[in-house]
Amino acid sequence: MSVPDFAERLLEARRSGTPASWRDIELPDRTAAYAVQDIVARQLGPVAGWKVGAADPEAEPMGAPCPVIGISSSPSAFDGAEWRMRGVEVEVGLRLGRDLVGAPSRSDCIRAVEALLPVVEVVETRLANWSESPALAKLADFQSHGALILGQPSAIDPATLDLRDVRAELAFDGQTVASTRGGNPASDAWRLLVWLAGHAEARGRPLRAGDVITTGSCTGLLFAAPAARVSAQVLRLGEVVLHF
Q1: What positions does the domain Fumarylacetoacetase-like C-terminal occupy (predicted)?
Q2: What is the pLDDT of residues 96-147, one digit of tens each?
């Protein structure tokens, strides 16, 4: 099956709610997975952010666009029954105050961020048997991106951000399910942003002022019940609340 065919299968899964089969798909590499993302993104409309992360401080980052239609402000409400996974990740968001183009340096990236904000990413899939699906299929499916809920921008100086010191808490219906310090495996948000700036520009959609970049989970991935109230705290940054 070709890249366009798989992209259409994922789009149909979004339209119908019926999970897409992936067992007859063989994406050769990340380039092919990103090509699928690009086709799907063009159909979903404008992009207002990106997700980026890495498995460890040395691993090559991976990213996906975040369409406007999936971004909202805290507090947000969702129909829990319509979400198959209701995966929740607590993250640190970077809001850009200027465009990032032309191979920016680490210092350029730090200066481009106008605000830090607490973020919750809702993890969702269009794939059947998600837990068994290959990594490249998940990457093609926007790295399992479902929605992004933004807290209020913080007054903290963005240049002081060190993911190794970030403290994050997550509660479902008032019960704490995660409390971490330095839980983001990538460790360095600025390395991620440098990579993403080049990656996004190469894909024809450079990072622009106003974009929100979410930098990977500080709490791992946890799953909420269909009617759960979710409260996330990133200490010193603020709170994000959503209801399923």
Answers
A1: 88-239
A2: 999 999 999 999 999 999 999 999 999 999 999 999 999 999 999 999 999 9
Tell how far CA 81 is from the center of its chain.
Answer: 22
Measured at the CA of 226, the angle between CA 223 and CA 227, to 5 degrees, comes to 115
Q: What is the pLDDT of residues 2-61, one digit of tens each?
A: 899 999 999 999 999 999 999 998 899 999 999 999 999 999 999 999 999 999 999 999
> Which pair of structure tokens corresponds to residue 162?
């060190």
The secondary structure of the chain, three-state, reads CCHHHHHHHHHHHHHHCCCECCCCCCCCCHHHHHHHHHHHHHHHCCEEEEEEECCCCCCCCEEEEEEHHHEEECCEECCHHHCCCCEEEEEEEEEECCCECCCCCHHHHHHHEEEEEEEEEEECCCECCHHHCCHHHHHHCHHHEEEEEECCCCCCCHHHCCHHHCEEEEEECCEEEEEEECCCCCCCHHHHHHHHHHHHHHCCCCECCCCEEEEEECCCCEECCCCCEEEEEECCCEEEEEEC
pTM beyond 0.90:
yes
Is the separation of the CB atoms in 115 and 93 below 8 Å? no
Answer yes or no: are the C-beta atoms of 40 and 7 closer than 8 Å. Answer: yes
